[in-house]
Design a protein that fits this description.
By secondary structure, the protein is α+β, with helices and mostly antiparallel strands. It has two domains: about 70 residues; about 110 residues, no CATH class. The protein contains nine helices and six strands, in the order βαααβαααααββαββ. It has a four-stranded antiparallel β-sheet with strand order 3-4-6-5, covered by helices on one side. α1 crosses α4, α5 crosses α9 and α6 runs antiparallel to α7. The radius of gyration is 18 Å and the shape is elongated. It starts with 5 loop residues before the first strand and ends with a strand.
């Protein structure tokens, strides 16, 4: 694994493809590409991204920010892209952690403390997926200190975490919650990003 803060190819490939398509269609000029991206970034646009390889997180940041600039949106766009990424990974069956999503709905059939504890175990398993996607931060699933009937997800070591990725992660987490909700989507909790100086925190909107 590289020591450079990096993201796995499976999570940057669609971004590279979309920037390349915008370049080829003329939506992004060569001048803007040269202004916003490094030469190494631009070289990625003409290569096949290896899903199993690591790519510089700052390449991700520059491309995502360029996409947001061209599209005229930022937070919502990245949430949408994060949600789409979660659905792609679930459909592809690349990561075993995604398999537990199909059993999240089973935990809601349990009673009281048993349901809460089972839900937490599955969340912690899913959170280990972060280590397969990012090599520079740590995701921790905790009981929310302010609302003990809910969980929160804290992200530590975020010095190299781009803001665009923080919003994409919010969309990713919410899409996973939806995928695990079964038919009772209306009853699922949603997750909302909160930022502190050195921590990102995603909090549940309601108890499970």
């Amino acid at each position: 694994m590289t020591s450079t803060p990096s993201i796995k190819g499976a999570s940057i490939s669609s971004l590279v493809e979309d920037i390349a398509k915008m370049r080829d269609s003329g939506r992004i000029s060569q001048e803007l590409l040269e202004e916003r991206l490094t030469e190494a970034d631009r070289q990625l646009l003409d290569r096949s991204v290896n899903f199993a390889s690591w790519y510089d997180i700052h390449s991700y940041r520059r491309m995502a920010e360029l996409l947001c600039e061209v599209e005229g949106r930022r937070e919502d766009l990245m949430r949408e892209r994060g949600a789409a990424a979660a659905k792609r990974l679930a459909a592809a069956g690349v990561y075993q952690q995604m398999d537990t999503l199909s059993r999240l709905d089973e935990d809601r059939q349990l009673d009281g403390d048993a349901r809460f504890e089972a839900f937490g175990r599955r969340l912690r398993l899913i959170a280990t997926l972060s280590g397969a996607i990012l090599n520079f931060c740590e995701f921790r699933v905790l009981v929310d200190p302010d609302k003990p009937d809910r969980y929160c997800i804290e992200v530590h070591g975020i010095d190299d975490m781009p803001e665009v990725l923080a919003y994409s992660t919010e969309g990713f987490i919410n899409a996973m919650a939806e995928l695990g909700a079964g038919e009772d989507i209306a009853a699922r909790p949603t997750w909302k990003l909160e930022r502190e100086s050195h921590i990102l925190r995603y909090r549940m909107s309601r108890p499970i």
